[in-house]
């Protein structure tokens, strides 16, 4: 039977107030891991007009409060905020309420005697991959990210003048027989200087749609279905326009709603927290399965209990209903992958300061680097799954 439908995903830029918080929280994680790779960090950030507040639990080396506050200012400066209501300069107050990790949590997570290291919390985590794009990501979220990332790159280079850091994008695509065949609408809202009117904003932003999305997907797009700043001017933005919190963009961070989400955010958490590490390894498994040609789509779910090292369950769902193939994939996972928190960290090299760069434009569909960033995006386990 035909399966035709419209599907929409959104992205937000690094200057979105929630993403500012994700960036700062991941900077804190990296700061501690760079000094001790086995640090424990759970950091939440709040931003509002000219204020940043850090809160959470730490177990690791001492980092002076002034040093951490300066790094917060460096994050804000790199994002591009120097406005009356939010700036990297002294007008923005930065407070830190980070404190020692609970001994009860540490007791459950630590390895001791014959007990292996346990998961840092209970929960379910999902990984997903599909062959809609070369990065094996769903097309709507992939292109939504790309538009904003290219805008940010040009803004920072000085070639996109008058556009400010806070922006959002949204793409609706028509699927025919479960395959994306065309874009039917695009929405982009972006903060801008008071010197630009809306016609000027549209002229600046419209080209990024064509830069980001393949021509064959745009050929039927009606210009009337391209909405740029549809509510009008957008001058007051970022934390001055709306408060921000860590972990409020979990669908943007993952698959744009194309796959389930277990509910746990990533940013601000060290890799003993399976919210983060198990979601990464689930994507790693799903991506290698699709890259091996086993299936057009793959969904993985892992479940954990706090203090328990092994996953309580492993669920695999492939395109189609081939139960024998699905069972074989599951057996290969159980045979070849150590999915304990320790096993995941060692397999993907997660005890490194590699997280700040993940805080905007998605944790998945990115290119692995020689620093160890996005190691879960490698296609180095294809041979295990080829049938």
Offer a quick outline of the entry.
With 387 residues, this protein is α+β, with helices and mostly antiparallel strands. It is 34% helix and 24% strand. The chain has helices at residues 17-35, 65-79, 103-109, 139-157, 198-212, 215-218, 238-241, 250-253, 274-291, 323-336, 341-348, 382-385, and strands at residues 5-12, 40-48, 51-59, 82-83, 86-87, 93-100, 123-130, 163-176, 179-192, 226-228, 244-245, 297-304, 313-318.
Query: What gap, in angstroms, lies between the N and C termini?
Result: 27 Å
Portion of residues in helices?
Answer: 25-40%
Strand content: 15-25%
Query: Measured on Cα atoms, how large is the radius of gyration?
Result: 21 Å
Note the run of SSEs as H and E.
Answer: EHEEHEEEHEHEEHHEHEHHEEHHH
Structural class: alpha+beta
- Based on DSSP secondary structure assignment, what is the total number of beta strands? 13
* H/I helix tally: 12
Please describe the biggest sheet, giving its number of strands, its sense, and whether it closes into a barrel.
4 strands, mixed
- Average the pLDDT over all residues and give the rounded result: 94
Strand order of the largest sheet: 1-8-9-10
Give the low-pLDDT segments. Answer: none
Which word captures the global form? Answer: flat
Describe this structure in words.
The chain is α+β, with helices and mostly antiparallel strands and 387 residues long. It is 34% helix and 24% strand. It is built from twelve helices and 13 strands. The strands form four sheets. It has a four-stranded mixed β-sheet. Strands 6-3-2-11 form a four-stranded mixed β-sheet. A hairpin with a 2-residue loop joins strand 8 and strand 9. Helix 9 crosses helix 11. The two termini are 27 Å apart. 45% of the residues are buried. The mean pLDDT is 94.
